[in-house]
Amino acid sequence: MKKMLPLLLRIIVAIILIQTLRFKFTAHPDSVYIFTKVGLEPYGRIGTGITELIAGILLLIPKTTWIGAMLTLGIIGGAIMMHLTKLGIEINNDGGVLFITAVITFVLSGVILWINRKDVKFF
């Protein structure tokens, strides 16, 4: 169980990151609305999608898990800040689901980074 929990956390965060890509890459109206409201449409939407894809892949590779976790903290930290400053907690009557998912992803990424702290390399 001790080895299964970290793997499960990595898979959960990777799935969250990767499942949102269909909204970003297909220009779903909700995604376009969000990135338009923060002034980053379309390049921010596509760039964020590519970065989330990279983070999701890095999380699943044992030697790069810590990089994926740090990247995810940065991406999702930015998303949380946008919610708190420009978007609001609730977007298009979603009941705050997008914000709550971002907070959960952020916390889980922090836990993943903590678990893998011995692998963090400083140059």
TrEMBL record:
Membrane topology: Multi-pass membrane protein
Hydrolase among keywords: no
Keywords: Membrane, Transmembrane, Transmembrane helix
InterPro entries for the chain: DoxX
Entry GO CC: membrane
Subcellular location(s) of the protein: Membrane
Family annotation (Pfam families): DoxX
Protein name as it appears in the record: DoxX-like family protein
Keyword presence, rRNA processing: no
Membrane-spanning residues: 7-23, 43-61, 66-84, 96-115
